[in-house]
Amino acid sequence: MKEVNVIGAGLAGSEAALQLAKRGFKVNLYEMRPNVETGAHTTQDCAEFVCSNSLGSYDITNASGLLKHEMEILGGELIEIAKKYQVPAGGALAIDRHAFSKAVTERIKQSTNINIIREEVTQIPNTPTIIASGPLTSDKFASAIKEFTKSEYLHFFDAIAPIVEKDSINFDTAFWASRYDKGEASYINCPMNKEQYENFYNILINAPKIERHDFEKGAKFFESCLPIEVLASRGVDTLRFGPMKPVGLIDKRTGEKNYAVVQLRQDNSAKTLYNLVGFQTNLKWGAQKELLQSIPGLEDCNIVRYGVMHRNTFINSPTLLNPTLQTRERDDLFFAGQITGTEGYTESIASGLLAGINMARFLNDEPLLELPQETMLGALTHYITNPEHKNFQPINSNWGIVSPVELPKKERKNKKLKGEFMSKRAIELIKSIM
C-alpha cells in the first residue's frame, strides 16, 4: 500500500489526510504539538481554530458560501463535521471550536489508514508529501522549505480577538440581534452613542501596544485581519464603517439608531463564551481590559482570553505551485493551507481537500484535478499560482477572482443576482467534473 506524508494536522492537513485515507492510502500525519508550541494554539487537537470560530457565510450567493458548497460536492470531510458542531451566527457557519477539533481528532484516530506522529519535522521527506504546516511553521522546518524553494519568505501578522463570559455582559444595555434581522437573533450587540464612541476611540488610540520582536519588524499586516488599533489609526470614523458599523442593528426595546455597535458572536456550544467580532488586537492586556470595559454592556466583563498577535508565514506560491497545488520542481510534493497564501479557515480546508484529491490521483497515475476559474476553488488556486503576481499577498475567496459573467445591463449592479448566477454556474461545473 502506498504511503503519503502529511506535515501539519491543522485544518488543511487534517482534510488532506482524511481524503487520502478514505481512498485507501496510508498516511503519516505529522504534528509537532504539544512537543513544540506555536504561540497561538492552546490544545494539541487536530484542526484547531486559533482566531475566530466562524467559517464565514453559508449563503451560496456569497463567495465564501459557494466555496463551502463546492467542498460538499467534492466530498469534503471537515465541512460535514463543522455542520454537526454549528452554533447560531445568523447566515454564517460558526462552530463550537473545541468540540469541532475534538471530533476531527477522533475521526483521524479512528482511521486505520492514518498514523499520527507527534514530532517536529525538520527536513522535507523525499517520499510523497503534502506540506500543510501552516502560517506558524517552526523555524527549523521553515528553513528546510526556504532551502527547497530557493526564495525568501513573505511574512504578515495575524491577530486574535478577545473572548468574554456571557454571564458578565450587562443585558440592560446589550441586546440580541442579527444585522437586518437576517436569521436568528444570534449576536450580542453593545450600542454606543457619539459620546461613548469618542471615549472608546480615545482610549484605543492612546493604549499601549505589545512591541514586536526584531525578527518580526519586516512583516506586514494582512488587510482583512487588521488589529483594531491599526484600523482606528486610519481615522476616527473608520471603525464605524467597519467592524463597529451600526447599520441594520436596532434594539427593538428602544427603536433607536445607534452611532456605533460592538458585536459579539457565540464561541462555544454551551453559549457561555462570546468573542468580539472584528476586535483582533495587539494591545497590552491591561489596556485591553480598560478598552473592553469602556464598551456599554461590557463594563464588568470577564475576559477569558485576551487578544494576541503573531507572525504568519507563506510561500511565494506564484513561482512555486501549479493550480493543482503540486510543486513545479517535484511531482510528488504538494502544499496546502495558509502557507500557500490562501487566507481563511474555509480556504485552508478547501486547499487541503484539493491537495489530498490530487495526491491520490498522482499516485494512481490519474490526471490531476485542475478546477476551472468559474468555480471558487478553481479561481482561488489559479490566483495564488498565477506567475504574473509580482507582489503576492494572501487572499480570501471573493467574486473578483472568479471568471466574470455577462448579465443584462440593468442587472449588473444586483450583487445577489450576480452571486446566484455565478454560484449556479460553478455548482454545475463541479458536478460535471465529479
Model description:
There is one protein chain. This protein is an alpha/beta fold and 434 residues long. It folds into 2 domains: 3-153 and 315-433, FAD/NAD(P)-binding domain (3-Layer(bba) Sandwich), CATH 3.50.50; 163-310, Elongation Factor Tu (Ef-tu), domain 3 (Beta Barrel), CATH 2.40.30. Helices cover 30% and strands 16% of the residues. It is built from 12 helices and 17 strands. It has a 6-stranded antiparallel beta sheet with strand order 10-11-13-14-9-15. A 5-stranded parallel beta sheet has the order 6-2-1-7-17. The chain has a 3-stranded antiparallel beta sheet with strand order 3-5-4. β1, α1 and β2 (26-30) form a beta-alpha-beta unit. α1 packs parallel to α10 (345-363), α2 (63-73) packs parallel to α10 and α2 (63-73) packs parallel to α12. The longest helix is centred in the last third of the chain and has 19 residues, at 345-363. The radius of gyration is 22 Å and the shape is globular. The chain starts with a strand and ends with a helix.
Gyration radius (Cα, Å) is 22 Å
Give start-end ranges of low-pLDDT stretches.
213-218
Question: What's the arrangement of strands in the largest beta sheet?
Answer: 10-11-13-14-9-15
Strand proportion: 15-25%
Provide the descriptors you would attach to this structure in a database record.
FAD/NAD(P)-binding domain, single chain, alpha/beta, 12 helices, 6-stranded antiparallel β-sheet, 30% helix, 434 residues
What's the arrangement of secondary structure elements?
Layout: E1 3-7, H1 11-22, E2 26-30, E3 54-57, H2 63-73, H3 78-84, E4 86-87, E5 92-95, H4 97-110, E6 114-117, E7 129-131, H5 139-149, E8 154-159, E9 163-165, E10 175-177, E11 187-192, H6 194-206, E12 220-221, H7 228-232, E13 260-266, E14 273-276, H8 285-292, E15 303-305, E16 309-314, H9 317-320, E17 333-335, H10 345-363, H11 376-384, H12 415-433
Parallel strand pairs: 1-2, 1-7, 2-6, 7-17, 8-12
Antiparallel strand pairs: 3-5, 4-5, 8-16, 9-14, 9-15, 10-11, 11-13, 13-14
